[in-house]
Amino acid sequence: MSILAASSQIVYREVHHRDPQQIASTGSGNCCFVNTNCGSPLFHRRIQDRRRELRAEAGFWPDLSRPAAEEMAPIHDSDHLDRILLQARDQSQPVLIDWMATWCRKCIYLKPKLEKLAADYVAKAKFYYVDVNKVPQSLVKRGNISKMPTIQLWKDGEMKAEVIGGHKAWLVIEEVREMIQKFVS
């Protein structure tokens, strides 16, 4: 039986049988409403306790000490890229650059996933993006970009590795993760 809590009623799909004294059918055949007192504090406490038990059983406790996603900053031109690379060299951190375009669906879909990945490496690597339609073409040529999305890892002022993301986003993220782990010290 699947349950969905809704204000003062519980909505559920019946699997095997119906008890006509407890269930008032909505007429759809298998979606029914059961009137219960869901507003009581005891009910809410029991729900919260059950959620805690399920999380403990699954070994799931969210890490609230760091953000779930780290917003990537844009790169505007070659001078800006030079300053970023110089700062990263001083801190001996790699720089990940997502070369994307606003018209590219895969680029738009991949960006939030990269921002979630950036939260995992917030102290070890810096993440940026370049919208190729909003920057001078000299910057795009400097990155040697021919396909999008392209994710490059730069270290010590030069491009060390890249992933061209023309396939599934989860595969791209795994390839980017492996690429970062090679160069993170």
From TrEMBL:
Q: Which Pfam families match?
A: Thioredoxin
Which residues, by range, are in coiled-coil regions?
none
Q: Which InterPro entries match?
A: Thioredoxin-like_sf, Thioredoxin_domain, WCRKC1/2
Q: Which UniProt keywords are present, listed alphabetically?
A: Disulfide bond, Electron transport, Redox-active center, Transport
Family matches, as SUPFAM superfamilies: Thioredoxin-like
Q: Which PROSITE patterns match?
A: THIOREDOXIN_2
Q: What's an example GO cellular component term for this entry?
A: chloroplast stroma
Its name, as the record gives it, is Thioredoxin-like 3-1, chloroplastic
Q: Which organism is it from?
A: Momordica charantia
- Gene it is expressed from: LOC111025584
